Amino acid sequence: MLRIVMHSVAILVLCCNLLSNVSSGLLLTSCCAREAWTIETFAGTGVQGFQGDGGPALKAMLDNPFGVIRGPDGAIWFCEYTGQRIRRIDANGVITTIAGSGKKGFSGDGGPAIEATFNLPHEIRFDKAGDLFVVDMMNHVVRKIEMKTGVIQTVAGTGQSGYSGDGDLATKAQLKQPHSIQFGPEGDLWICDIGNHVIRRVHIPTGVISTFAGTGSPGATPDGSAIAGTPLKGPRSMDFDRHGNLWLATREGNQLFRFDMKNQKISHLAGTGGKGFSSKNGPAKQLTLNGPKGVAVDKEDNAWLVDSESSTIWRYHAGNGMLERMAGTGEKGDGPDGDPLHCRLARPHGIFVDTDGSVFIGDSESHRIRVLRRTDASSERYRVQLVAGGEREQVNIPADQARLREPFGTSFGSDGSLWIVEMASGNRLLKIDSSGNLQHMAGQSKAGFSGDNGAGLSAQFNGPHNIAMHPQGSILIADTWNGRVRQYDPIRNLVSSLAGYEVSLESAKKSGPYCVTVSFDGKEVYVADLLRVFAIDLKTHTIRYIAGNGEKGVPKDDAMAIDSPLVDPRAAAADRLGNVYILERNGHSLRVVDPSGKIRTVVNAAGRKGNSGDGGLALAATMNGPKHLAIDPQNRVVIADAENHLVRRYDPTSGLIERIAGTGEKGASGIGKSPLECQLARPHGVTFHPTTGELYITDSYNDRILRLVPDKRITP
Q: Is the pTM of this model over 0.70?
């Protein structure tokens, strides 16, 4: 996510000011709700053309994308108006062309859709059987692509412009520049026959077409009028709500209507009928629209409206009749991504509301697919605070003044104390006590392997990478280049090696323990050693292998994890649902082993090194040398993407990834600012406070520990 945006305060003030001047019967409902939204590019470079099939959609060239929809296969599908193609973006973010040769024409019926020609396709929809329907506007037809065979055929229209055929087969009827289609609750095909100013309906079982609404001539559509016999003025786009009612945007009428299917009445909802751009939110009937060309109804019965000629996206709130601008400035342009109200759009046409509430937009003349997403409003209220790391070469002083030497891992004791382990530059185990002072507890600056069964300060470590808290209170240390998991007992001030696991010193750098994390039930410690991931039972000290067969390679999705190769598992942690997440440093990927033991990749399916994809599908994202991970209270995975100098978060529920800390540029500025404005330098550790849930970041090459704190808790 490039930027978390809070435009809710402005909306709140504006809406409430408006409401003070209208009927007291209006409620302060969703328009005045406190919300945060971002807008991101989902596909397209902004350059018009045809390029990129087989690669990331974000690097592909698009050609005037119009209609956009999520298919039954989970992919995002869209049509290109001047590109004369139908294209698909899969869960990995890879784009392919499904239909259309790219030439303008009307050919291909009865053959492969990929070889067919179109003439300005406007919109696409899937029927209940999973087949794809295309409005081929200037061919004056609706066409169907059978997904099993890939064959295309015409299902409505003759190819000649006109208005005829009601009561007969739809293939014998004439249409005039149809623009939008939709499938009703009963499965019938509905067509916005805009050139004839009517809505037509094709009864799927019989293939018979009829006129549902409109008279064939343009005219005003009075509020409360009967559906039958009332004229329409440029019926452009439609959708059905969960109650089976039809919503319609009229292009020349510049209005939004809802058709009450039970009572057969038309309600006027938005737009004065005049043409113009209302820059402010307000009562929907009092605002002007400018050529609305797309409408989609969300699960709360609010309508999302594409006002194409003003290059804006609006939301009609069903609860209070207010119209709220959600994206676009009113000026035609291209971005930037981030704050939707500052992102210029360019004559958008298509719109689709996903099941999670995300809104996909065919930003036509920007040659991009964009997506609006609701964000966690609390993110903007966090600031970065320095916990440890200063200039004084001392201990037993305030931690934020004391010098750290390459801190990597952190963990919390049951008393709330923060423990820190330093890698090769320090080789020390440190503690920040309840008074905030830094104490040196174990290890020496000189690397080595000594001190088992002795006092903490007499022991030596060699490149320890991480630590975890044993449920009985000792600190487990991934003493990487010594090939051991060491333990420090703070009560007895005693260092020892965990029984049941040992790697020879000769092999330790290639397969020593790089990460240790303790399961939420406290029974096992998970170890990642660049070859395998396994769990050590903390009671019996027996080893249970989880993933990796000892060979280097990329595992295949849905293969058994213990039989699969791994690139170099650097960190592993289990969530509360029985999944084990594995982070691969040179594989630049996050993988998960489900409770059945099968492995699959969830971040960066391509395994490419890079820094891309925030705000989009995690499978399509790239990372660069990620080093550690932690599971948050919502079972999301927070990743220290070290070589990108970022902290990112993967949400397994939505499949999305976002940036939550760091700018992407190596640096040290930003203490006291929001997490997204704070520079990091190769962060290696992420840990959550067990009580407050606050995120702690080991900013390793800045030799400091940071935490993200709510504004109200920032201390002087």
A: no
